[in-house]
Amino acid sequence: MSCQLCIIIPTLNEEKYLSLLLESIRKQDFQDYEIIVADAGSKDRILEIAKNYNCKIVEGGLPAKGRNNGVRAAVGKLILFLDADVVLPQDFFERALAEFKKRKLDIASFFLLPKEKSRVASFLFNFFYNFLIFILEKILPHASMGILVKKELFEKLKGFDESITLAEDHDLARRAKKIGRYGIIRSTKIFVSVRRFTKEGWLKVALKYFLCELYMIFIGPVRSDIFKYRFGNYLKNKKK
After folding, report:
1. Domain membership flag for residue 54
2. Interval 147-163: pLDDT, tens
3. pLDDT at residue 226 above 80?
4. Which residues of 163-180 are buried (b: 16+ CB within 10 A; e: fewer)?
5. 126 in Cβ contact with 61 (< 8 Å)
6. What is the largest CA-CA distance in the chain?
7. How many CB atoms lie within 10 A of CB 225?
């Protein structure tokens, strides 16, 4: 049975956050979608929660692998990749899909705002991410936390590059722009958790991604463990 939109979510021990995301999806007026959870071997209640929300479940791994596996199981013509720790605002689907169609986009990403109410966090997101991706939209695409893409284009690109260890989402957007139309959705935003910033430190995370950006521009995709990215590394009391 086909549907208009397939939502793919890679997970690893995300029971608290996944519940919030799935509930925000359920509350949307738009209902022509399927949800695929690509799980990388969670030890918590992820699979139980996913089943309660009628999600398909596929084998995951690192985010690139999980997302690629999700697409192979998808029946929708449009794919929406979401991180497990995001929440969607009201009317997200209607606004995003209408703008995507109106602007004749093939791939799009979104501005990000913190879920937690904080003027400081909002300023940091707006100034150091949203403003920068806006001014670079036409020359250096970015895509993080949420990516809306036509399945046909995704398959032409052969999906995410699973050899990349960090910023495989930006890499996808930059490859996509070469053969498709990329844009940032203006009509709605995605709310994201600041947990990685509070755990690792705002300055440390910002510096890591700034250096990653320079690496991608001057050297190429990050395929080594130089930035020591760890998927699912935000559980409380989790040992490194």
Report:
1. yes
2. 999 999 999 999 999 99
3. yes
4. ebbbbbbbbbbbbbbeeb
5. no
6. 47
7. 10
